[in-house]
Amino acid sequence: MDASLQLWRSDALGTARRVREGELAAADVVLSSLDRIEATDARVNAFTTRLAERARKHAELLDQHPKRSKLSLAGVPFAVKNLYDIAGLPTLAGSKIERDAPPARRDAVLVRRLEAAGAILVGALNMDEYAYGFTTENTHYGPTRNPHDLTRLSGGSSGGSAASVAAGQVPFSLGSDTNGSIRVPSSLCGTFGLKPTFGRLPRSGSYPFSASLDHLGPFARTVRDLALVYDAMQGPHEDDPACAQRAIEPTLPQLDRGMQGVRIGVLGGWFREQALDEARAAVDVVAGALGTNRLFELPEVERARAAAFLITCGEGGALHLNHLRERAHDFDPMTRERFLANALIPAAWVVQAQRVRHWFARRVARVFETVDVLLAPATPCVAPPIGTEWLEINGKRLPARPSMGLLTQPISCIGLPVVTVPLWGQNPGAPHLPIGVQLIAAPWREDLALRVAAELESQGIVSAPIATLA
Question: Which of 61, 170, 379, 459 is the most buried (most CB within 10 A)?
């Protein structure tokens, strides 16, 4: 069917409406997505597993579903980072070791919620091993390439999740964010991304990295799709003790409220000092569009970043200790040495890092008494070439891979909700590459960050076009 060849270009909101109304068959939508993946993934390398048979079966069932007209995501294809459980498959978490693990008995909670809303899972996506990285240069499964420039990084650790959306393979995907793993690839691949408040979405059925910091969240090509998907996943779950017992708070209906009463500020200090010109310029464009020049500085940001680093290292090293003892040779070399070093971190350091974290959270809470959303760069620069070892940031030579999280880790430390929005043309030498701005809100106010993102999208300041794969 010729029309199906272009269905992959559609957004989730429009696709679901057409399937609900009987204008489209879910089977045709899924076929279009699978064909797009087949045509493009040899170049992008976003997928580690394709679920064509499962997806076709679910689409056929959906087309016969008696309540299809009530499903918010009817017939919309999606994919998930391969640390989400998928029934019948081992949960890889980007590793070689987990290939030998027993298959998951059931899908992750968020996958089940999305499919209950009518969405159809088409595959699992590449990532840094055990979510430990910002580049998705995975030794076992190969690097995921940036769809807007195939010589460059997709970011990580949810690189496959961002790249699959940017390449038009799926209209939305799921990733995880511990220290920036949704925000960094959103910035480099030019998608919208949401890291919800810590504890907002249940992590049940996902492979952990750091229980104190792990978040799950979506990527999409429009703000409305981002809100639609987020709303479908909300609600507590008893299997995740960190998940807050909060009622569902729909955000999609809030997007048309505009900016009335929303107070915007710009983060200075660390967030400008650790950014190149293109990142600062992107924030300035957003601030100008929103009509704000209010500057805020958070206290001890570098210490907060160090606290997030230590907590991640300590918990991650402890989690993988047995595998490090028994199968160290099967780790990705890019993660093995760091996990080994992390396993030696004194517990007292992690305890102190948690104290700093709580102190920082209290201080930042005071800032949100006078502002609703704060602006900051998401990455220090546009996507570097694959294999880049060093970055020059304002006169400092820094290791490239960890430094991609310079601007996201302090926010991870205290679990604030963040929407990342992509801008274009901020680097004159690489105008085809996007760079993201973080819209940071107070805890549980995802609605405000999404409203600001929707305003910027309506003005044409931010957008997430499908890549040409040049």
Answer: 379
